[in-house]
Amino acid sequence: SSGINAEYGQYPDYSVAESSFSFWFQLAENIYRAPDLQIVETYKPVFIQLLNVLVKLCELYEEFDESSFDDEDFLDFRDKCSDLFKDIVYIVGIRPVLELILQQVEQTPVDHWQKLESLLFCSSCVIKILSRSDTD
Description:
Blueprint: H1 14-18, H2 21-33, H3 37-57, H4 72-92, H5 94-107, H6 113-135
Helix pairs in contact: 2-4, 3-4, 3-6, 4-5, 4-6, 5-6
Protein backbone atom coordinates (compact mmCIF):
# COMPACT_ATOMS: atom_id res chain seq x y z
CA SER A 1 0.00 0.00 0.00
CA SER A 2 1.20 3.50 -0.81
CA GLY A 3 -0.08 5.04 2.42
CA ILE A 4 -1.50 8.00 0.47
CA ASN A 5 -5.20 8.78 0.46
CA ALA A 6 -6.79 11.12 -2.09
CA GLU A 7 -10.11 11.32 -0.25
CA TYR A 8 -9.20 14.42 1.73
CA GLY A 9 -9.55 16.20 -1.61
CA GLN A 10 -13.29 15.67 -1.35
CA TYR A 11 -13.58 18.79 0.76
CA PRO A 12 -16.46 20.65 -0.91
CA ASP A 13 -14.40 23.76 -1.69
CA TYR A 14 -12.42 23.09 -4.86
CA SER A 15 -9.86 25.76 -3.95
CA VAL A 16 -8.76 23.65 -0.98
CA ALA A 17 -8.19 20.63 -3.21
CA GLU A 18 -6.38 22.82 -5.74
CA SER A 19 -3.74 23.58 -3.13
CA SER A 20 -2.67 19.92 -3.32
CA PHE A 21 -2.11 19.88 -7.08
CA SER A 22 1.61 20.59 -6.88
CA PHE A 23 1.94 17.50 -4.66
CA TRP A 24 0.10 15.33 -7.22
CA PHE A 25 2.17 16.70 -10.12
CA GLN A 26 5.40 16.04 -8.20
CA LEU A 27 4.31 12.54 -7.16
CA ALA A 28 3.42 11.66 -10.74
CA GLU A 29 6.77 12.97 -11.97
CA ASN A 30 8.59 10.82 -9.42
CA ILE A 31 6.58 7.79 -10.51
CA TYR A 32 7.49 8.50 -14.18
CA ARG A 33 11.16 8.44 -13.28
CA ALA A 34 10.95 5.30 -11.15
CA PRO A 35 12.79 2.39 -12.76
CA ASP A 36 10.50 -0.14 -11.05
CA LEU A 37 7.11 -0.81 -12.67
CA GLN A 38 5.86 -2.09 -9.31
CA ILE A 39 5.82 1.52 -8.12
CA VAL A 40 3.30 2.38 -10.84
CA GLU A 41 1.12 -0.57 -9.74
CA THR A 42 1.36 0.55 -6.11
CA TYR A 43 0.05 4.03 -6.91
CA LYS A 44 -2.66 3.11 -9.42
CA PRO A 45 -5.41 2.81 -6.76
CA VAL A 46 -4.45 6.22 -5.35
CA PHE A 47 -4.71 7.87 -8.76
CA ILE A 48 -8.04 6.12 -9.42
CA GLN A 49 -9.24 7.57 -6.13
CA LEU A 50 -7.93 10.97 -7.23
CA LEU A 51 -9.87 10.67 -10.49
CA ASN A 52 -13.08 10.08 -8.53
CA VAL A 53 -12.37 13.08 -6.31
CA LEU A 54 -11.75 15.32 -9.33
CA VAL A 55 -14.97 14.19 -11.01
CA LYS A 56 -16.87 15.29 -7.90
CA LEU A 57 -15.01 18.58 -7.56
CA CYS A 58 -15.53 19.44 -11.24
CA GLU A 59 -19.31 19.39 -10.82
CA LEU A 60 -21.03 22.68 -11.43
CA TYR A 61 -22.80 23.88 -8.33
CA GLU A 62 -26.57 23.57 -7.80
CA GLU A 63 -27.34 27.24 -8.41
CA PHE A 64 -25.44 27.27 -11.71
CA ASP A 65 -26.94 29.67 -14.23
CA GLU A 66 -25.36 29.51 -17.66
CA SER A 67 -26.49 33.00 -18.61
CA SER A 68 -24.64 34.57 -15.68
CA PHE A 69 -21.78 32.10 -15.17
CA ASP A 70 -18.67 34.11 -14.49
CA ASP A 71 -16.54 32.04 -12.15
CA GLU A 72 -13.03 32.37 -13.58
CA ASP A 73 -11.53 30.62 -10.54
CA PHE A 74 -13.66 27.54 -11.12
CA LEU A 75 -12.81 27.50 -14.83
CA ASP A 76 -9.12 27.83 -13.92
CA PHE A 77 -9.52 24.92 -11.48
CA ARG A 78 -11.03 22.77 -14.23
CA ASP A 79 -8.16 23.70 -16.53
CA LYS A 80 -5.67 22.53 -13.89
CA CYS A 81 -7.69 19.32 -13.48
CA SER A 82 -7.28 18.63 -17.19
CA ASP A 83 -3.50 18.82 -16.66
CA LEU A 84 -3.77 16.40 -13.76
CA PHE A 85 -5.78 13.99 -15.91
CA LYS A 86 -2.66 13.56 -18.06
CA ASP A 87 -0.82 12.16 -15.05
CA ILE A 88 -3.77 9.98 -14.07
CA VAL A 89 -3.93 8.55 -17.59
CA TYR A 90 -0.19 7.91 -17.62
CA ILE A 91 -0.30 5.98 -14.35
CA VAL A 92 -3.68 4.23 -14.61
CA GLY A 93 -3.94 3.86 -18.40
CA ILE A 94 -6.34 5.49 -20.83
CA ARG A 95 -8.68 2.52 -21.23
CA PRO A 96 -9.23 1.98 -17.47
CA VAL A 97 -9.79 5.72 -16.96
CA LEU A 98 -12.38 5.90 -19.74
CA GLU A 99 -14.04 2.70 -18.45
CA LEU A 100 -14.28 4.18 -14.94
CA ILE A 101 -15.84 7.37 -16.30
CA LEU A 102 -18.29 5.45 -18.51
CA GLN A 103 -19.28 3.23 -15.60
CA GLN A 104 -20.11 6.34 -13.56
CA VAL A 105 -22.09 7.82 -16.46
CA GLU A 106 -24.16 4.64 -16.67
CA GLN A 107 -24.82 4.70 -12.89
CA THR A 108 -25.75 8.38 -12.67
CA PRO A 109 -29.46 9.28 -12.79
CA VAL A 110 -30.38 11.53 -15.70
CA ASP A 111 -31.73 14.22 -13.37
CA HIS A 112 -28.29 14.67 -11.78
CA TRP A 113 -27.07 16.81 -14.65
CA GLN A 114 -24.18 18.35 -12.69
CA LYS A 115 -22.49 14.99 -12.24
CA LEU A 116 -23.18 13.97 -15.84
CA GLU A 117 -21.73 17.25 -17.11
CA SER A 118 -18.66 16.76 -14.92
CA LEU A 119 -18.16 13.23 -16.23
CA LEU A 120 -18.47 14.47 -19.81
CA PHE A 121 -15.97 17.25 -19.08
CA CYS A 122 -13.53 14.72 -17.59
CA SER A 123 -13.96 12.31 -20.51
CA SER A 124 -13.36 15.13 -22.99
CA CYS A 125 -10.08 15.93 -21.21
CA VAL A 126 -9.03 12.29 -21.46
CA ILE A 127 -10.04 12.07 -25.12
CA LYS A 128 -7.97 15.20 -25.86
CA ILE A 129 -4.97 13.46 -24.29
CA LEU A 130 -5.57 10.48 -26.56
CA SER A 131 -5.95 12.62 -29.67
CA ARG A 132 -2.73 14.53 -28.85
CA SER A 133 -0.79 11.30 -28.38
CA ASP A 134 -2.05 10.04 -31.75
CA THR A 135 -0.64 13.12 -33.49
CA ASP A 136 2.75 13.00 -31.74
